[in-house]
Every structure is written in C-alpha cells, then in structure tokens.
Amino acid sequence: MPIVPAERMSHIGQETAFEVLVRARALEARGRSVVHLEIGEPDFDTPGHIVAAAQQALEAGFTHYGPGAGLPELRLAVANYLQKWRGIDVDPARVVITPGGKPVMFFAILALINSGDEVIYPDPGFPIYESMVRFVGARPVPLRPRRVPVPGQQPHAAHHRQLAPQSHRQRPHPRRPRSHRRRRARPRHRGALG
After folding, report:
1. SS (H, E, C) 102-138
2. Which of 50, 135, 137, 191 has a CA 20 to 30 Å removed from the CA of 83?
3. H or E element: which one contains 47?
4. pLDDT, tens digit, for every residue of 120-177?
5. What does the alpha-carbon distance between residue 188 and residue 150 come to, in Å, rounded to a whole number?
C-alpha cells in the first residue's frame, strides 16, 4: 500500500534556492563569473581560527548531543553580541541556537499564526517564506523594500502595508525574526521572537 502524504503537504513548496545554486555552479564551471545571492552562504571559507577551534573541540570529545537551546557559553556570546553591536538587551536564557533561520521561523509561524491571518514576508527573499505561510492557511503579504536597509536600523513606518485591523503580521527575516501586531495607526514592534 503506498504512503499518501497529508493534504496539507500540497501547500508547501520546495526551497528553489538550492536549484538556483546548482545552476549557478554549473555556469561557474563553464568559466562564467557569478555573484551568489541564492542561499545566503558567505562567499569566503570558514576562518582558520574557527576551523582550529572545531578540531580541538572534536579531539576533546565534544561529539555528543548538547543542550537543545544551544551551549550556554554560545548563548551568552550571542546575547553579548546583540548588546554590543545592536544595543539590544537579551537574557541569554531567551537565546536559542538553531542550524539556520528557516526552521525556527517555521516553528514560530506554526505557534503564532492562525488560518486566515495575514503574514508579511520580505520580497525579494527565500521562496520558502511564502510557502510556510500558505502551509498554515494564512495569507502571505509580500513586503517589497523601497531602499536597501542598513543593518541594525529599524524599517521606516512607510514601508509597512496597511493590513486588516485584527491581522497578525510576521516578518520572517534571515537573521532576526520580529513580530508585529497593528493596534495603532502606526505599527509597533513587539520584540524579537527568539
């Protein structure tokens, strides 16, 4: 008897960024110069001191499962980074380390968004963002920037589209998901989800 996927699986798309990566690498193999913008991967190798630290950790026996939210020392380092470079005070207990941004954004969407809600997502952005929103039965609302955002700078209120008064708004971002809910004429930030 064949395994039949759940009906909701028809609402989730594929991450096409990796398909674009394969085509881009094929072009590079033929001698073309390519600027990679498809998967959010740095265009440089891992720095040597990080490779050496990883080798030392493996040799020291750090080869088993760690805490689900991440190593406490790393969570503290992330909280310190946010304070120093972004001016954001975050309790390290509220920091969660994940193997990428998309899974944790999907978990937040599953936990916070109901069928019929409107969800803002960045466009251009990863195609899976819209797919995640559709998967939970919500309505995706693309947010197309009018200018290139400066890291650490809050988006201008004019960049927000007017939404229905009772709608939830989720802005998945590759680095920092934020939640918004319209209660006044001007949107206000509720803070970081993680």
Report:
1. HHHHHHHHHHHCCCCCEEEEECCCCCHHHHHHHHCCC
2. 50
3. none
4. 988 888 888 888 999 999 999 999 877 666 677 665 554 444 444 444 555 544 444 4
5. 19
Q: List the 178-181 sheet strands across, edge first.
A: 168-171, 178-181, 188-192
Residue type, 25: R
What is the b/e burial string over 151-174, where b = at least 16 CB atoms within 10 angstroms of the residue's CB? eeeebeeeebeebeeebbbbbbee
User: Which DSSP category does 149 fall into?
Assistant: P
Treating both helix axes as pointing N-terminal to C-terminal, what angle do 128-135 and 101-112 enclose, rounded to 10 degrees? 30
Structure tokens at 14: 């594929």
Are the CB atoms for 171 and 189 separated by under 8 Å? no
C-alpha–C-alpha distance, residues 51 and 9, integer Å: 39
